[in-house]
Amino acid sequence: MAQDARIAILNELPDVLVGVGDPDLDATRVAIYLEDALDVVLPAEALDRHHLGSVEAITALLPGLVEES
Amino acid sequence: MCGICGTHSPGSVPEVDAVTAMMAAIGHRGPDGSGYYRDERVALGHVRLAIIDTAHGEQPMCNEDGTVWVSFNGEIFNYVELMAQLKDRGHVFATHCDTEAIVHAWEEWGPGCFDRFNGQWAVAIWDRRAGELVLSRDRFGVRPLYWTTAGDRLLFASEVKALFTDPAVTRELDPIGLDQALTFWSTVAPRTVFAGVRQVPPGSYLRVRGDSRELHRYWEPGFPERGTEPVQDIEENARLLRQAVVDATRLRFLRSDVPVGAYLSGGIDSAVTASAIAHFTDADLHTFSLRFADSEFDEGHYQRLMSQRLGTVHRDIVVSERDIGEILPEVVWHAENPLLRMAPAPMFLLSRLVRQAGYKVVVTGEGADEVLAGYDLFREARVRQFWARDPGSPARARAVELLYPWMRRSPNLAPAFAQSFFSRNLDPDDPALSHRPRWDSTGVLKSMLADTARATGLDAAAELVAGMPAASVGWDPLSRAQYLEMTTLLPGYILASQGDRMLMANGVEGRFPFLDPNVASLAAGFPARQKLLGLDEKHLLKRAFADLLPSEVVDRPKQPYRSPDAASLFAQGSPDWLDDVTSEAAVEAAGVFRPAVTSRLLAKCRKAGGLGLSNTDNMRLAAIASVQLLHHQFIAGRRTVPQTPPGPVAAFDHAPTKENHERGVRA
After folding, report:
1. What residues of chain A lie within 8 A of the CB of B396, using their CB?
2. Does the domain spanning B2-220+649-663 belong to CATH 3.60.20.10?
């Protein structure tokens, strides 16, 4: 993935993380965004609020998103 | 905005009466006057709605030496810039009309001129030098253009009813066209619902020379390969979008010699275009809105909010169920298509209000949902794509609850709904994954068809998918969904049955900034994730115009335009025409539907007063009523067609007849 796309995705994440009130559903929405943006399939065990509830958690899950930035 | 018609007749001189009869049939499209051109092979007819250079601009129009003649419906918004280029190349203009820009653009660039046009058009160009008739239509199909044959003659017109004025043209419904309409909500160009009647597809032109007919495509929707979008920064994309939309709106508001108004639906799209006019032009803005007596459908609060914020002179019309039922025959007459919703009828009443207020041009928000991903279908497809990657995953199945707030409030209902609807056809590799639920739920209507009206051995959806561009394999799934929407529902229903036809029925031209080629091309290049950021539909548009719109309008959940369906025929009594057109005898005589099935449904709807019916039953009823009306008016011919074209009538008769030889031809 091109560097400008990775930077753009990191910049977009705070807007995507704005919640609807149900942390698990919010995590699902983040997962949809990430799979579409990165063209990946997230593992079943990562589809929860712990892995997808913050920028820090996401970058820990997907280190490639920041490593080359 | 106008209507066009004509004949290419290689074997005989076209009849004047035949072309004036066609002009009369579409007189509503151009009440300000009419005209025809005729020579030994071709007749071109025109009815005019005078908008640009109203004192001149009589059509058909020709070049300096009368070798190129044009009959034109629509607007070329960049005609001023094109005229300047053409003058630099030595062309001499007699008017300030965009029509004349087409004449000279054809001389200069041939078919390459269509790529240069920023506009909405259906145009017939008769090039006597090449002996060639060219029929061209704009990129998205804003303006209609139909053709058919009778013997060695080719007839064309803005509306089918003009073709049917020729007694040699067969009047028959097409089972394949019906099948498409009862799958996609509209036929897919070039097919129509009438056997033997074709339409020039959007972004295409038909070349006719002698007996030869060649269809060429000069444009179709396209998207970058996933991951190669030119600009990744979301703020930059929002800025680019704002500039393009403002430019496109200004162009459509200012390029007119008559006053231009704007629709305010209560949604974000028309709020953006009206705001662009109010903030970026000096003109007073008049706005028009559609309201409903039934509060379930009414958006009056948001319309008033926008009107007050922009300081517009605002008018609205409140439509009742009964209004819709009573006007439906007129609506179907103009739509010339099966309807699966009554929603076009209120649009007809709205354009009548516009015309009565003295306006004949309005700017509207059509096209935003397609080019910027506004429909629920796109959000649903995102969720289904996500679920399809692991259909057994409970976490992925829960994603459907993100679609509609009521699902979160009804935890017991949601899983059942998801299982029964969104989980069907979950094939992640299906290029039409986005559209299967709609096509499947609409296709149920075909079970009502009589055996003789069924298209046997046809899989309309498979045929459509097989025709998708090879490059679409590399597009984002959202882009593929947008492509399907832009090539089916947009031209066939949104811009036709609910757009051009409902506007032009009352002599009103619609202008659509979101379908400006610069806006559409820019939007196609945005990363899909930004258009639906976090499942927020039209996110970039909201981001681009957030400072100009009330948050109440920006943040409200998407409200699709809807109107009462079955209730319009049963809630406040039934309209007089209903029994005559939908009786068991009438259904039997038309031969389209199975009479027992339609009778059962009508009895059910009548008993319920048109209320509380399922979505499918509402669609079934609309289909029966509209197709029966189509048959009644077009096939059985029980509708009186105007006989006289709007006056004054300009005649450019160059046919080698004895009369013309004696009196000399007028050019």
Report:
1. 28, 47
2. yes
Closest in B233, B395, B527 to A28, CB measured = B395
The answer to whether B230 touches B516, Cβ cutoff 8 Å, is no
What are the domain boundaries of chain B? 2-220+649-663, 234-372+486-554, 567-635
Q: Is the dihedral of CA B394, B396, B399, B400 positive or negative?
A: negative
| B233-292 confidence digits (pLDDT tens) | 999 999 999 999 999 999 999 999 999 999 999 999 999 999 999 999 888 999 999 999
> CATH number of B234-372+486-554: 3.40.1190.20, 3.30.1700.10, 3.40.50.620, 2.40.110.20?
3.40.50.620
* pTM, full prediction: 0.95
Distance from CA of B540 to the nearest CA of A (A): 12
Amino acid type, B159: E
Q: Express each pLDDT in B630-658 by its tens digit.
A: 999 999 988 999 999 999 999 999 988 77
Tokens, residue B272: 């953006």
- Read off the amino acid at residue B198: R
Within an 8 Å CB–CB cutoff, is residue A1 touching chain B? yes
CA distance A67 to chain B (A): 18
The residue extents of the domains of chain A are 3-67
In three-state secondary structure terms, B73 is strand
Half-sphere exposure of B640 (CA within 13 A, CB side): 3
pLDDT for the residue B665? 47
Count of A-B CB contacts under 8 Å: 79
In b/e form, how buried is each residue of B159-180, taking b as 16+ CB within 10 angstroms? bbbbbbbbeebebebbbbbbbb
Q: Does the CB of B454 have a partner CB in chain A at under 8 Å?
A: no
E-assigned strands of B265-378?
286-292, 313-319, 361-363
Write down the ipTM of this complex.
0.95
Residues in CB range of A34: below 8 A, 6 or more apart: A40, A42, A52, A58, A62
Residues of A in contact with B428 (CB under 8 A): none
Among the partner residues A4, A11, A22, nearest to B408 by beta-carbon distance: A22
Please count the other Cβ atoms lying within 10 Å of the Cβ belonging to residue B560: 11
The backbone torsions φ and ψ at residue B149, rounded to the nearest 5 degrees and listed phi first, read -130, 155
Q: How far apart are the first and last CA of chain B?
A: 24
Average pLDDT over residues B160-169: 97
CB of B306 closer than 8 Å to CB of B266: yes
Cα B253 to Cα B275: distance, rounded to the nearest angstrom: 12
Cα separation, B228 vs B230, in Å, equals 6
